[in-house]
Design goal:
five-stranded mixed sheet; elongated; alpha/beta
Length: 197
């Protein structure tokens, strides 16, 4: 992984085609939510499929917790769709057969010249693509468990949501005074809230 991709740094705002062939930027997909980015070897890898199956089971919690999930792989569009559909996943899968991400992040898995994948990584990003955590998944046990992801998302959400602790007397006073600016999702239209889900 590139030396400048560390906690606190801004992750590159890659723009790649999604499973429907539509170009998507990571920042657009993230909005103001915490986001998990799974950099995957692709359809051929059983370790990646196992991790993705865990993420499929975790996806309903991500939705109700207002967090996002994106997979990027070196698969072409057909394999990207076969992988997503076969898993029963509902989050965006981005296709990078040109290996833009692999080359830019310097994560070529040079021990596999047949598939030329990227070393799988999982990143947890705070809003504005700020890196919170990085997991190197070359070995399966380097990949985050759902519990580790839940912990990371809790830390990020606690930091970014000013209404995390409703027992705070200042929050209660602001609410009573009609100041809802510190309460999510006030200040947003319902369209914006549901678009983020």
């Amino acid at each position: 992984m590139r030396a400048d991709i560390v906690p606190g740094a801004r992750f590159p705002d890659y723009e790649l085609p999604d499973h429907a062939g539509r170009k998507r930027k990571l920042s657009e997909l993230q909005g103001d939510a915490p986001m998990i980015v799974f950099l995957s070897r692709g359809l051929y890898c059983p370790k990646d499929r196992r991790q993705a199956m865990n993420l499929v089971a975790f996806e309903p919690e991500l939705k109700v917790g207002y967090a996002k999930l994106v997979t990027i792989s070196t698969d072409d569009l057909l394999a990207t769709n076969e992988n997503r559909d076969g898993l029963g996943a509902h989050w965006p899968f981005l296709s990078d057969p040109g290996r833009i991400v692999q080359k830019d992040l310097d994560i070529q898995e040079y021990t596999d010249p047949v598939h030329d994948p990227m070393v799988p990584h999982t990143l947890v990003l705070a809003p504005e693509l700020r890196v919170h955590g990085i997991y190197n998944g070359y070995w399966y046990w380097g990949r985050p468990s759902v519990e580790e992801l839940r912990r990371d998302l809790r830390e990020v959400t606690r930091r970014i949501r000013s209404d995390w602790d409703l027992s705070d007397p200042q929050l209660r006073a602001a609410w009573k005074a009609g100041d809802k600016s510190r309460f999510w999702p006030y200040g947003k239209s319902l369209r914006e809230v549901f678009a983020e889900k």
